[in-house]
Design a protein that fits this description.
seven-stranded mixed beta sheet, 216 residues, alpha/beta, hydrolase, binds 2'-deoxyguanosine-5'-triphosphate
Amino acid sequence: MRFVLASASPARLATLRAAGVDPEVIVSGVDEDAVTAPSPAELVQALALLKATAVANALIETVAAPTLVLGCDSMLEFRGHALGKPASVAEARQRWHDLRGRSAVLHTGHALFALTEAPGGRFASPEKAKVAVASTEVRFGRPTDDEIEDYLATGEPLNVAGAFTIDGLGGWFVEAITGDHHNVVGLSLPLLRAMIRELGYALSDLPRNGRGPATS
Ligand SMILES: Nc1nc2c(ncn2[C@H]2C[C@H](O)[C@@H](COP(=O)(O)OP(=O)(O)OP(=O)(O)O)O2)c(=O)[nH]1
């Protein structure tokens, strides 16, 4: 079986590899600004589906073996707003001044297609995908103004949804989470496992990279 990660995210790729999976990466390149939704949780699901559908459609005519295609999208919900990657240092600074000492929810949308060689439609119809969201509450610490400036100077906050990482330089300022850790990084392994099984496959069907035992 092929497992295609429709994401440019190094964090998602690293999460899958550490979990023993050997994914292929095909970046979707979709315009994320073209999508709106009534809530952050619905928005990340719509964006994940957009990314996965674009890559599935690019593959559908050459599928020669069962192929899973996964798209994801992560955003931080704070005061009802969906916060993706900050557009500027000034925006990242303001976010940290707003977030410190408070809690927010990191939502990651997941969309998974199972393409088979069975002849069928010449396109991957979105309704055939499994779509779901995992949500993790994040309680932020209280970085000082100087610590915020030092963190901004690393450049990391500009490249990640919510302007923070839990497993990187932002870890100093994440006090606690309620929910799945990897979901904050960008991909929920238990949710993905459930979606794979809902499509009739097992973890042992995934292409493995030699880490850890094959599990069924
Ligand atoms: N390592 C790490 N990365 C994080 C964390 N929180 C968010 N991110 C990253 C994961 C994703 O690469 C990025 C979220 O942005 P998107 O969901 O739009 O994905 P991205 O644009 O990176 O790639 P994609 O749109 O999927 O091709 O932020 C974290 O706690 N740790």
